[in-house]
Amino acid sequence: MAIVLWLRSVSGETRQKPVNVRELKVDALSLAANQFHGPAGAAALFVREGVRILPLIDGGGQEVGARSGTEPVPNVVGMGVAAELARTHMTARMAHASCLRDQLKDGLLARLEHLRLNGSWTSRLPHNLHVCVEGISSESLVLGLDQEGIAAGIGSACNSKAMRPSHVLKAIGLSDEEAHGALLLTVGVPTTEDEIDRALEIIPQVVNQLRHVTSLTSR
User: Fold this and answer.
1) pTM over 0.85
2) Which residues are catalytic?
């Protein structure tokens, strides 16, 4: 499976390990194809033998009675191919992503003042960079970056429509004001060093423009 589990040893060293449901002894595990470059709309659910789940949709009994309806065969096949490619190239993909993410992180820290990195830097997925930018709203920043052709997010896609500060950021000690400057950047298999260089050029420009506007309107 194209899933990675992050483990921390007694010495504090962090390492990654492919998920094995037998070793984890989980009763159920779900994954979506778009998480590993498969087609959106396809997903898989592992359910341990003997575990009963209630059906999501009643009807003809497809999907072992869990979700009746015709399976999207092309999406399912695409998901299988994506999973096989992800398993084959997992180590190389993770090294590529973590290298570009670190390059993005180091570049932003060098170019922007009052930038906070969120979360552990050792126990995290290799493609993820989450920061808080002081003095601006993340909504304005994301819109400004979008106009420059850079796709960014405020936080979890599950809460993308919520305007209130993330409860997770508040739980790790951030104030409402700090959390309002949250910015999520991710890299992937297609991401190139040239794209990282362009992001490092554009992001500070947009941040400084917004900070300038904010300082003028707050007088």
Assistant:
1) no
2) 158
